[in-house]
Design goal:
Blueprint (H helix, E strand, L loop, with lengths): L13 E5 L1 H4 L2 H4 L2 H12 L6 E2 L3 H8 L3 H11 L5 E7 L5 E7 L8 E5 L1 H4 L2 H7 L6 H10 L5 H8 L6 H10 L5 E4 L3 H8 L3 H13 L3 E3 L2 H4 L6 E4 L8 H6 L9 H41 L13 H16 L15
Antiparallel strand pairs: 1-5, 2-4, 3-4, 6-8, 7-8
Helix pairs in contact: 3-4, 3-5, 4-5, 8-11, 8-12, 11-12
Length: 338
């Protein structure tokens, strides 16, 4: 059954994304298709790190075509954070099983929320905003992100200090919806494995889906750009908009695909036969019309008789000339039309 964006979105689910994957430079060497599909697959992982979304589901959520998804899966083989093996399901279908390695407590990580995928932003980034680099850049921005309580207070109109801070960091901080980032765009481009121009386009795409928002200088007071990077999307795309624009289900079963192709060939063949019948009917009408006009004329032949082929050739040549208002002039086998 083809994937549909769920009506109810869970903002609590997330997986731990190792910062070392980006800081080591490995993220920048991966194909952009892999940068797009890895978070989608990891967001399906259970408590044991096992995930098995279909390629169609991965394509729908990432905004990638099936060919791009397969390229991305091939790129996953370069990663040590995920393992892939093939399995035959109970229904006799081939499927890929992904095992996502959880980073240890000693390794720095950030929380990648599944709502970024289920809200539709991840798909729209590639489909509507047409940015292939935005997925890679978003993850890099989260690696370099940080939290500032003073800026948070200014934005939210709250004033957590003293004893309130303990309550804030224990209850509110873990579920915050955004962090801040002020990394140089050149650095972000380098660690994302894209050119600076592509990174700039990615910023615009992320702003377009409201995963990135510039922080007013009046709040941060610095002489450079500071951004809010949203861990949990502040908006959600309408389910009707997302589900009505999904690609048609892909048929993996070759047997079923061949049956459909044969039905298509039979239909096409029937259309060809119908077209040929129409052509024959048209030819018969034309032939009758030709003899109708021929019966009006008396044909006189000089010198030598004409063969049927020669006769009709000259007849139609003369008829065309007559219609154009021309005279054919003298010829050895002249035809006079009364």
């Amino acid at each position: 059954m083809a994937y549909k964006f769920p009506e109810t979105i869970n903002d609590k689910n997330f997986f731990k994304f190792s910062k070392q994957l980006v800081l080591s430079g490995k993220w920048a060497t991966l194909p952009l298709s892999t940068n797009s599909i890895f978070p989608v697959i990891a967001s399906f992982a259970n408590s044991e790190g096992i995930a098995y979304p279909t390629q169609e589901t991965i394509g729908i959520l990432s905004g990638c075509g099936l060919k791009t998804v397969r390229e991305g899966i091939a790129g996953l083989l370069k990663m040590s954070d995920i393992k892939i093996h093939n399995k035959i399901s109970k229904r006799g279908l081939r499927q890929k099983i992904y095992t996502v390695q959880k980073p240890s407590d000693s390794v720095e990580s950030f929380s990648f929320y599944k709502s970024v995928v289920e809200d539709g932003q991840w798909r729209v980034l590639r489909i509507d905003e047409k940015s292939r680099a935005a997925h890679a850049v978003y993850c890099t921005l989260l690696v370099f992100s940080f939290f500032d309580i003073n800026w948070y207070n200014e934005i939210e109109g709250e004033f957590y200090d003293g004893n309130d801070l303990h309550d804030f960091y224990e209850n509110i901080f873990p579920e915050r919806t955004y962090d801040f980032v002020k990394a140089d765009i050149g650095v972000v481009a380098e660690y994302s494995g894209v050119e600076r121009k592509a990174a700039i386009r990615a910023y615009h795409a992320l702003i377009g889906v409201e995963l990135l928002k510039e922080l007013p200088s009046a709040i941060h007071g610095e002489n450079k750009q500071v951004w809010q990077i949203f861990r949990i999307p502040p908006v959600s795309y309408k389910r009707s908009y997302l589900n009505e624009n999904l690609p048609k289900p892909h048929i993996e079963n070759e047997f079923v695909k061949n049956i459909i192709n044969k039905k298509h060939d039979i239909t096409t063949h029937r259309r060809d036969i119908t077209t040929k019948k129409q052509d024959i009917t048209t030819y018969e009408v034309s032939f009758k019309v030709s003899f109708k006009y021929l019966s009006k004329y008396e044909v006189r032949v000089k010198k030598k008789p004409l063969t049927d082929t020669h006769f009709f050739s000259i007849f139609f040549q003369e008829l065309v000339l007559k219609m154009k208002g021309w005279n054919s002039g003298e010829s050895e086998n002249k035809i006079y039309l009364n």
